[in-house]
Amino acid sequence: MLYHLECIECHKKYKPSEVVYTCTCGGLLDVVYDYSKIHLTKKDLKGPLSVWKYRALIPVEREPVSLNEGGTPLYRVDRLAKNLGLKDVYVKHEGMNPTGSFKDRGMTVGVTKALELGMKTVACASTGNTSASLAVYGAKAGVPAVVLLPSGKVALGKLAQALMHGAKVLSIRGNFDDALKLVRDLCDREGFYLLNSVNPYRLEGQKTIAFEIADQLGWKAPDRLVLPVGNAGNITAIYKGFKEFKRLGIIDSVPKMTGIQAEGASPIVRAIKNNAAAITPEGKPETVATAIRIGNPVNAIKALIAIRESGGTAETVSDDEIIRAQQELAALEGIGVEPASASSIAGLRKLVDMGVIDRDETVVCVTTGHLLKDSEHVLSVCPRPIEIDATIEAVRKAVFEN
Ligand SMILES: *Cc1c(COP(=O)(O)O)cnc(C)c1O
Ligand SMILES: [Zn+2]
Which pLDDT belongs to residue 1? Predict the structure, then answer.
């Protein structure tokens, strides 16, 4: 075997054939490779970007369940950069994946793994995007999907996807953290395959964001990577991706991992600022950025390591700052993202203003989900369409009115 699962706390090992999500000691698991047997060079990585281009570093053997995920654009955003007072800023727009969020990178790998393990039903808790992605990849694989959502707190576009693609959608009277606890119990009892980001195979797909950024920058890592943090799987995964490319000699540095949370849901930021070994969960997370409305991030320990080891940091942003950043990115650069994704831009602005980020750093912000995911939010923050009579006089009056 070229890889195994290993506990990050007690280092107990598990075989790839085992269905296991966390260690018997309670620790998180990591996929660990025998890198001496992996020979991957820049030359092997010619051709178009996609998650499955990096098969040598993806721990599955069978034919992938795929809808062509990955290969998302890395936009250079000079107008935004100037506005922020920076020189070199890029946006990796993960909203351009098949279902409109980065979750597809993890799901293509996770659902393929489910088939490889012979699992008959897949399940997850979700703030929305994970459920949309699981519904789609479950449909593609021909495997039933069960999703647990916090009632009334899921953006309509995400709910629409979960419903249309045929998942069993359960609306829980509770928050995401409650839903995650329930689905873990359900999976243990019923033998369903758990596809939240506590499942280490999900992260193996998501680490390809790092591989693509390195490729798109001409085999270089940026100085800093800024992204929203919810359950903290993605920051962990992207950090792992950069470290692997460095280890294989494909790049020679790893970016400072910089996690952004909303003020109303910021356990990781508090742990970083307090220099704490672990987070203190928050009972009542609240923010307009529903994708990161999480009080007890399951991957917190891994995320704290990623931030500290890389010399990065974590910062909070207010809902108003998130909305302003969302509108700026849309108007200045033509990039439409959902609120959680805009927190990366809002956080970048705040950290530049605070003097934490240097003005000559090369920065990549990851925008995690597409604008159309949450159109209800758009209607609540943008001016309404102007309704007028169907006459040229009325049209002209409305056009030239301010
Ligand atoms: C899932 C998600 C996040 C949070 O990612 P984590 O891996 O849970 O930290 C951020 N933004 C969007 C749009 C998401 O769907
Ligand atoms: Zn352990």
Answer: 59
